[in-house]
Design goal:
- The structure is a single chain.
- The protein is an alpha/beta fold.
- The protein folds into two domains: 172 residues, HUPs (Rossmann fold, 3-Layer(aba) Sandwich); 94 residues, Pantoate-beta-alanine ligase, C-terminal domain (Pantoate--beta-alanine Ligase, Chain: A,domain 2, 2-Layer Sandwich).
- The protein is built from ten helices and nine strands.
- The strands form two sheets. The protein has a six-stranded parallel beta sheet, sandwiched between helices. It has a three-stranded antiparallel beta sheet with strand order 7-8-9.
- Strand 3, helix 3 and strand 4 form a beta-alpha-beta unit.
- Helix 6 crosses helix 7 and helix 9 packs antiparallel against helix 10.
- The chain is globular.
- The structure holds pantoate.
- Pantoate (PAF) binds next to strand 2 and helix 6.
Amino acid sequence: MQIITSPKEFQSLCWSWRAQGVTSAFVPTMGYLHQGHLSLLEWGRSNAQKLAASIFVNPTQFGPGEDLSRYPRDAEGDAAKARDAGVDVLFMPEPAAMYPSGFATSVSVSGLTGGLCGRSRPGHFDGVAVVVTKLLMLSMPTTAVFGQKDWQQLAVIRRMVADLDIPVAIEGRPILREDDGLALSSRNVYLTPEERAQAPEIHKGLLLAREMAADGERSPRKVLAAVADHYRAKLPGASVDYIECVHPETIQPVGDVAGPALLAVAVKFSGARLIDNMLLH
Ligand code: PAF
């Protein structure tokens, strides 16, 4: 596995694959790789001739007071995991290489970014959009692979890639969970033992909503109220940031959960804000 820190060098290698007609998959990450990331790499390894990945804790997607400085990092461990997963090239740039002095461009996707995490984390999706645009322009893969845990992010990226005619297919892969249902996340390491014991209730609330929808409930208001009650009872150590039923593509609130509907939640513990989601049908 080759490790590259220079954007130009990474671009020239990846573009040479494209010029030769070699298929490639690209998995962008912020590192601290867990089984969820490895499942994205596995998909890439099995579906393309070349596999590229990046590790870059992107400063522009963190707001003031968020966890940029203490975001978990393990460059050496990540490189070993990437090598074992069959990555051909691992791109690990420094912030100054991605955002050199004078950098002045922003990328903003409107509409889909107004609610959910976009409301709680102003500017977050502009940071994601600009870095993903850069990473795709550098790697220009056949397919870029993202996890569905950040469902809104995936919807934003699909919209952006379509709007900007970026010639890359976007593959969204299912959420991986611990045995007790907690969605895998690099931020789970921030949980205290008490919080870790409660955290699987996030997923249980989603299952409750799906059960209600399967039993014929159509009112998002009733479903949301039931999930909120569940969290109030079972997550005393956390505060709910949002619980919403949205259309999976437009990320706009739905009036009826009998059609396409995604239940998306964000819950704040003392040291970590966790997100999760589930399609109701
Ligand atoms: O999902 C992530 O890890 C990040 O938001 C991404 C897509 C790598 C951009 O920094």
